[in-house]
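Session log. Operator J.P. requested a structure for one protein chain; no other inputs attached. Running the standard single-chain path with token output.
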Amino acid sequence: MRVLFISILLSSSFFSSQIKISYEVKYKPDSTKMYFNTEEMMLSIDNGTSYFYNLTKFKLDSIYDQVTAQYAKTGVSPSVSMKYELKFGIFKDFKKEKFTEISNIAGKNFAFEIPKPKLKWKFMDSEKTIFNYSVKKAVVNFGGRSWTAWYAPEIPISEGPYKFYGLPGLILEISDSKGDYTFWAKGIEKNTNKIILPGNLISTTSEKYIKLVDKLVQDPAMFTRETFLKYKNVKMKDTSGSDMSANDLYKRVTNEFRNFQNNHNNPIEKGISWIQ
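Structure written below.
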């Protein structure tokens, strides 16, 4: 793995300000296959709050409105690649003891408060070096998996990727015991920007979100049907420009949804539905 790591002056004043850490995430979407995907995610920290998000999604959010507006006018499916599969974002507010999950499904960003995880870390008598930092080992059970973390006491931030936190140092690496998910820190640098959450958030509750996911599992074309009814006069076309009926579109969306489900049976937390 090629790693770019930016050396910084270690001082309490630096770490109490704004920084961002990029992580490479290697994961196995299908537990029955030896196939891994890799995506890049970012942890932005700002004085007691943090936001962990997918970098690809962050970049695509900036052009989403433009692309969907073009689609509504022309009926031609966008050719721009919007491929990313880790569609969660985690906002932590330690001042308010509040965690918020931001989940993207069907092109919509849903935000809902989640319980702050009670992570019971067990400290191990092991050390190694990552990027010239001496890191220590800790293990925890979370989300139906056993996780091993390597944290750097030299970097006095009790933070980490995803929902992980609570160690006396920044988590530079964490993986589950099966090797299905691994987060590696690639770089750390001062961040001059404030944390920015997606601007098109749909606020809901975790209970309502779960019900919505259940509805989509039963009817994957639900949102597509709503969009089609909103723009009744639009003639649908596929990426090649050929005409497409509404029923053909619904079938295609449903088939793509089912295929994604079949090939993504290994979510980061056991027991949750991984949908697109």
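Operator note: Residues 12-190 form a domain with the outer membrane lipoprotein receptor (LolB), chain A fold (CATH 2.50.20).
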